[in-house]
Specification:
The protein is mainly alpha-helical. It contains 13 helices and no strands. The longest helix has 30 residues. It is globular and about 65 Å long.
């Protein structure tokens, strides 16, 4: 059963994609898609898969630091199956809930596991926004409208401040005599301020985001477009932030709109609208193949059965 939320996401993706496609000439788009080298698609799919594995390892480090002890293999399995659920859906279960449930592995740690997912996403978004901000300041803030620079500053400062101060505020609001105090103390551990843990997850997150930027450069090269690396470092964080918002299906439509906006404008005319749509098609291919890989993992490990049982209980 498809949830109303999923229907809304698909509708938004379809609408935004229709708007973007109205800007292209279909004969040129077909030719552009046909001209994509096989090696480009292969490298991007493989690189995307490797990046998700890197992200899973980072999540595992964060989860272990908060008390949800799990092996790297368990975290990788849970992460990729969660990707499958996010991409193709299984009723009312979301990908984040699924990977949290699988990481808990039947232990009474579901709340803690879900908190680790939330912390993982918040930290990743903070690193991404700070990467975009630093790139903008280093390589030319004049390349972006000031409002986008302010947006990066707002996102980066808000999430970083929330990470550092949020747990302390929450502990202050929940007195030691409150019966929920012990649970709160457990949950705030996932927003670690321990230097070693912060360094580990930040380096892994930075490598993941830089890899995604490099993959965009490879796509542009394969399409015959020349986009300066400095500009990719500035723009792709915006694209990834926008496409990660839970308003569309896997960022479809939002991502292509962002590509057209940043790469096909008068000020930065680095590629045609057809090439921008083709870039989105290659990225969607990478996401889909990686998600299918998660489905294969779920089938081989018999976790489909677990997911169906949990879905039945939820109903």
């Amino acid at each position: 059963m498809v949830s109303p939320k999923s229907v809304i996401k698909i509708a938004i993706s379809a609408l935004m994609l229709a708007i973007v496609l109205s800007l292209v000439e279909f004969s040129s788009l077909i030719q552009t898609l046909k001209s994509i080298p096989v090696w480009t698609a292969f490298v991007v799919v493989l690189g995307y898969l490797m990046g998700q594995a890197l992200s899973a390892i980072k999540w595992n480090v964060l989860a272990n630091s908060g008390g949800v002890s799990a092996s790297a293999a368990t975290a990788l399995k849970a992460y990729f199956i969660g990707m499958y659920v996010n991409c193709f859906g299984l009723g009312i279960l979301g990908g984040d809930f699924t990977r949290a449930m699988l990481l808990a592995g039947g232990r009474p740690l579901k709340t803690e596991s879900l908190t680790s997912v939330v912390a993982d996403r918040a930290h990743g978004l903070a690193v991404l926004s700070l990467l975009g901000l630093c790139s903008t300041l280093l390589f030319g803030y004049q390349t972006l409208d000031p409002q986008y620079l302010y947006l990066l500053i707002f996102i980066g400062v808000s999430i970083t401040g929330g990470w550092l101060l949020g747990p302390q505020i929450l502990l202050f609001l929940v007195p030691a005599t409150n019966k929920l105090r012990a649970k709160v103390e457990t949950l705030v551990k996932f927003f670690s301020t321990h230097p070693k843990t912060l360094l580990q997850i930040s380096v892994l997150s930075l490598l993941f985001h830089v890899l995604q930027i490099v993959l965009h450069g490879i796509i542009a090269y394969g399409l015959g477009a020349s986009i300066p690396w400095q500009y990719l470092l500035i723009v792709i964080p915006f694209v990834n932030i926008a496409s990660s918002l839970p308003i569309s299906w896997n960022g479809l439509g939002v991502r292509e709109t962002a590509y057209v906006f940043f790469f096909c404008g008068e000020a930065h005319n680095y590629m045609t609208e057809e090439q921008a749509v083709a870039m989105g098609a290659i990225w969607l291919l990478a996401v889909t193949v990686t998600s299918v890989f998660g489905g294969v993992v779920a089938f081989m490990t018999n976790d489909f059965k677990v997911l169906r049982e949990k879905e039945a209980v939820a109903h």
